Amino acid sequence: MIVAISPGKVILLGEHGVVYGKPCLSMAISLKVAVNIEKNKEFTVNSLPLDERRHVYIKKAIDKIWDKEPISITTFSQIPSASGLGSSAAITTACVAALLAIKGKFNLEDVAKTSFEVEYEVQGGASPNDTSVCTYGNAILTWEKKMPGYLWATAKDGREWFVYPVKVHDMKVVIGHTGIKSKTPLLIKKIRRFVEYSSFGRELINEMENLVIEGKKALENRDFVKLGSIMNENHKILHTLGASSKEIEKLRLAALKAGAYGAKLTGAGGGGSIIAIGDNPEKIAEAIEKKKGKAYIVSTAKEGVKILK
Ligand code: MEV
Q1: DSSP codes, 129-187
Q2: Distance, CA 290 to ligand 1 centroid (Å)?
Q3: What is the pLDDT of residues 82-105, one digit of tens each?
Q4: pLDDT in tens, 240-287
Q5: Global pTM?
Q6: CB-based burial label for 277 (10 Å; 0-12, 13-18, 19+)
Q7: Residue 243: CB within 6 Å of ligand 1?
Q8: Measured at the alpha carbon of residue 95, what is the angle toward residues 304 and 93, in degrees to the nearest 5?
Q9: Mean of pLDDT over the chain
Q10: Are strands 24-39 and 139-143 parallel, antiparallel or unpaired?
């Protein structure tokens, strides 16, 4: 038997832009998933037969790594599915890590690489951001720009990404989950159409670059007022790109009215969750719940994916 644990994630700044190589700042969070793998007579997931559609990420991970006897996979998750909080990335990363560990081939770079391939193929396009932050933990910057000190790098369809560690002191973030599923592949497609066919769309994506780099500096300097105002700017761009929804706007407004320095959608959008930062997380969480959102106060997960034996 082997168990792997992976954190979920929030994107602080730069979702969607990162699909086009723009920088993206994200942080692993204290909501986690665990995957338990045991020998079995047939392939099962949570006691059901392994199914290509229902267990699409796990099936793809098995196809890529596993050439051995049948196994049973059991998943446990604190992360609501399709919430923008990295539940698929965390399940993929934990599953890949556990399978590699059984084969004696566990190392973070291979986990990041294979997990990204799984997400990319299942979603029909993705950046390595989500699976990388689940793999390495703490905070990361994913960017097409090559500089010294990256953790790993990859390329797909003529685009390159370099993943950098970011220093983040323990930080609290308030999440407001709308309860509506965020359909990442659909959102990526919708925004791709906008970006490919309109120069305004491309300008919006380009605008994210400076914002994210300024936001990274603010995070490293613990200047949360500045980071919050950059999050607000980033949200406006995402809204114009078509990634927001009325439920997201409602929770975001509630968080800002409760004194948040900044609030934005996180992940692909269209539903899913918002994140907010401020000096009174409890008050922000209460305001979110009053508007029928599910609030979580999370902190930085220092560790990425790990194996428990
Ligand atoms: C989804 O969490 C983040 C997106 O930028 C997609 C990706 O980077 O793969 C929308």
Answers
A1: HHHHHHHH-SEEEEESS--TT-SEEEEETTEEEEEEEE-----EEEEEE-SSPP-HHHH
A2: 29
A3: 999 999 999 999 999 999 999 999
A4: 999 999 999 999 999 999 999 999 999 999 999 999 999 999 999 999
A5: 0.97
A6: buried
A7: no
A8: 35
A9: 97
A10: antiparallel
Residues 6 or more apart in contact with residue 23 via CB below 8 angstroms: 14, 17, 141, 142, 143, 145, 208, 209, 212, 213, 216
Give the integer Cα–Cα distance in Å for 282 and 288: 10
- Residues 6 or more apart in contact with residue 49 via CB below 8 angstroms: 42, 43
CA of 18 to the centre of ligand 1 (A): 7
Of 19, 121, 163, which is best to mutate to test ligand 1, by the most ligand atoms within 8 angstroms of its C-beta? 19
Q: Is the beta carbon of 269 within 6 A of some atom in ligand 1?
A: no
Specify the pLDDT at position 132: 98
Q: Which atom of ligand 1 is nearest to the CA of 9?
A: 2
What confidence score (pLDDT) does residue 169 get?
85
Q: Is the dihedral of CA 178, 183, 188, 191 positive or negative?
A: negative
Residue 273, classed as helix, strand or coil, is: strand
Query: What H or E segment, with its residue span, contains residue 296?
Result: strand 294-299
Q: Considering just the CA atoms, what is the radius of gyration of the chain in Å? A: 18
Segment 188-202 shows an average pLDDT of 96
Does residue 18 line the site of ligand 1, with CB under 6 A? yes
Residue 68 is predicted with a pLDDT of 84
Q: Which structural domains are found in the chain, ordered by start?
A: 2-167+302-308 (3.30.230.10), 172-299 (3.30.70.890)
In this prediction, residues 114-122 reach a mean pLDDT of 97
Q: Describe the crossing of helices 199-220 and 184-197 by its angle, rounded to 10 degrees.
A: 120
Q: Is the CB of 19 under 6 A from ligand 1?
A: yes
Residue 122 Cα to ligand 1 midpoint, Å, equals 13
